[in-house]
Description:
This protein is mainly α. It is 73% helix and 0% strand. The longest helix is centred in the C-terminal third of the chain and has 60 residues, at 211-270.
Amino acid sequence: MCSSDLKGFWITEAILVLNILSGVIFGATGHVGVxxxxxxxxxxxxxxxxxxLTNYSSSISVTILFTIIVITLVLGTxxxxxxxxxxxxxxxxxxSYYFAKSAVVLTIALFQFLxxxxxxxxxxxxxxxxxxxxxxxxxxxGLTILIQFLCTLAWVSIISFLLYASQSIxxxxxxxxxxxxxxxxxxxxxxxxxxxxxxxxxxxxxxxQSTTATTNTLSIALGFILVFGFLGLAxxxxxxxxxxxxxxxxxxxxxxxxxxxQSASVASCKSPPKISTKL
Length: 279
């Protein structure tokens, strides 16, 4: 990362910590998008350590937003400033570059999850105590984390595709907010269709005991990851073809101009000067 990216990263992390502190102290955190299924925690609830983990799971959309911001700083900067061409110049293929960046993105998303849930648990435990662990907590919370992480990767795949397609950070953010809204609207208009309630890629601890919610959200998240992951790679490789064609076209034009100038120079040298015979 460059210095501006590092500054943006730490500002993002600071806002994320403030959101966590808001939940622990005031019992309320932020939420991104249209809330169709999630039951947000009441502001009067005391966030003990274990209670904070279950409550914060309903506000994971904030963590996803901050994850996307960090990823946009990392990947978007490379694409918008054409820094990726430095790697390609050393013989790295576009496919290798794409998967290497995908690994970096996955690491960032995992780091954000560990920081979010780790901080909320530590701060709440210090401030209000551990509290009592719910029944089957480890299994249910582990499944919640897994599905939420896959939902995050689904959003990351969508945003990465937009970045590769447009090479514009602004369009990527606009696409995220518009996409968030569009994925939430079907559940509001077609409430009787169960699967539409889960395409907004939101999942929380209270839904983990529902087989329908778990299966549908997991399937939809994996579908988004595969589809937009493939589209992102295909778009990035297609840009390679376009850039190659453009480079060939520029080279041909340059060669034609050089040959034209050479021909003109030779012709001017061969033509003898005209001598006037008039007295």
